[in-house]
Amino acid sequence: MKKSTQPTINDVARLAGVSKKTVSRVINQSPLLNGDTRKRVEAVIAEIGYVPNPQARALALRRNFLIGLIHDNPNAQMVLNVQQGLLEVLRDTEFELIVHPVDRGSGSMLDDVRQFLERQRPYGVMLLPPISENDTLAELCAEIGCRFVRMGSAQFGPAANMVASNDREAVRGAVEHLAAAGHRRIGMIAGPHGFRSAFERQQGYEQALEDAGLPVQRTLVAQGDYTFESGMRAAERLLDLAPRPTAVFCSNDEMAAGALHVARQRGLDIPADLSIVGFDDTSIASHLWPPLTTVRWPIATMARAAALKLIGDNDEIADEPQDALFVSTLIRRASVAPPSA
Amino acid sequence: MKKSTQPTINDVARLAGVSKKTVSRVINQSPLLNGDTRKRVEAVIAEIGYVPNPQARALALRRNFLIGLIHDNPNAQMVLNVQQGLLEVLRDTEFELIVHPVDRGSGSMLDDVRQFLERQRPYGVMLLPPISENDTLAELCAEIGCRFVRMGSAQFGPAANMVASNDREAVRGAVEHLAAAGHRRIGMIAGPHGFRSAFERQQGYEQALEDAGLPVQRTLVAQGDYTFESGMRAAERLLDLAPRPTAVFCSNDEMAAGALHVARQRGLDIPADLSIVGFDDTSIASHLWPPLTTVRWPIATMARAAALKLIGDNDEIADEPQDALFVSTLIRRASVAPPSA
DNA sequence: TTGTATGCGTTATCAC
DNA sequence: GTGATAACGCATACAA
Description:
Structural class of chain A: alpha/beta
Number of domains of chain A: 2
Strand content of chain A: 15-25%
Largest interface: A-B, 43 and 45 residues
Oligomer: homodimer
Order of helices and strands of chain A: HHHHEHEHEHEEHEHEHEHEHEHEE
Number of helices of chain A: 13
Largest sheet of chain A: 6 strands, parallel
């Protein structure tokens, strides 16, 4: 009759000579079901190419199968890696990923997110830094009753709602590496104020200096805002110092690239005259000349873990007490050498 | 009574003392409605914070408000720019973006897409290159009855289903620029076989040479696969030539970066000894040293246009015969100079 | 201008 | 084990 449209559960029921409920049972793998009827229904399903309507399912179940990704465009590679990690887990489930960028500068960010959550009512959402650091946002999710996982550079919330790297520790290792190479004047290009990641990384830098018995000097720290240009400006300031630092740790690769740029403009040889370490291990790091020593954090792994936390204890996927902390590694390339002096 | 859950249209109706239908009319901006009742209903809506359930709406309307983005991870910046462009348009509508990456190498790509389309039944989907070039995929969308827009480097389909740049023309201009600077041995690092973009760009290169009265030599074209490493390998081959080309056009920035890398390893001065032009104007282009002359295509604009095509003639948004072709521009930076010889 | 009855495709309740 | 029947939240016919 109405073959023009997508077949529904009714069509299957009619053709198989059973009730809707039975078909529903087949779809939902109900255990109490006669093997014969099951096979018959499955045959019909395969034959007419029936596929359940997620909208209707969502309505009846009073819950849907959408996972939201809320972010404020940190950097392209990061967002995409997260998406990839999430989708790797979601691929074999009935969940779909729905992306919702926001503008943290707009002032209506919270309202925007609230509207998104109330409208779509996603099953769970993942929050990317830097907005993941916003406690009000986390409270909003909790209040609305939406599962959420925050990604961050430190564990600033309950483990159940976090996937975090340990940036402080990672940077400590990186700067330690510099000190071990013989550097005694190690500068830092820090991230912007208000960013947890910037704070953690600076802490790691200072700890490493203390561990190495080196003085922590304010003049050796220049602040940037994670952009290439700000990295250039910060590097200018650092390289104007006398004596010049022989090494500089940069809070991200982008700024490291800017620093490298400036150093070369000044005729400095990298790494002979200046060692540079970045953070993130974005593609730019390996393509720079010389390739950049940097810190890599397991972003895809973290995203996968986040996805599991979001959809976990829902399906048969056991909700083992998953760890919230993930370890970063120092990627040693050619931008670091002992000081030449 | 049941205040624990999200308010529904029934709650609004009851509290406002009207029928569900009237509330529905308010929501859908029906013109034939008493101003008083409208205001009363709107007041209740605002008071109890009612927000329509999209799932139920979708079910009743027999259509949903999801726009799909199907891609095979071309490059991160591109995917993100497209997302941004799409969401800019979708932001003020009731549509949401749902991302669905696929693996064109897996063999099950078409089945994967088909399943996605049949399950979610998105209102429309956007196809990114290179899979957008796959005609079978486009036919699949058409067959299933899903609106679609293909993004490409040339108009290889009906304008209604396309947003395209004109890569051939853009490259012609870029190589012309090289010729105008006095270069007579201009090499090319081409993209991988089977990519429409690679083909178009090579065509543009050859046309420019012909226009300039220069011979088209096979040896001056080295093939890469759009990766940094392949750019390095291709550059090696080109720079081994005697006489050496004095300029090289690269089919994308990534490969241009690889070429730059190799040139510097060989002690060549850029641009004095070798001029380099890239394509895409990704962030890497401006951060390279020297900054890379490259072709910028209006990716966000194209994405916005695509979004309009997808949701167009649905809302009041007029479906003016939008153009399918978008023009690229040559971004002149420091990697090009007249040949030094 | 507003209300009533009915349907959208699925699942849950509770019988048989 | 299986099947009527009533939700789920909203929209469309068709009356009133």
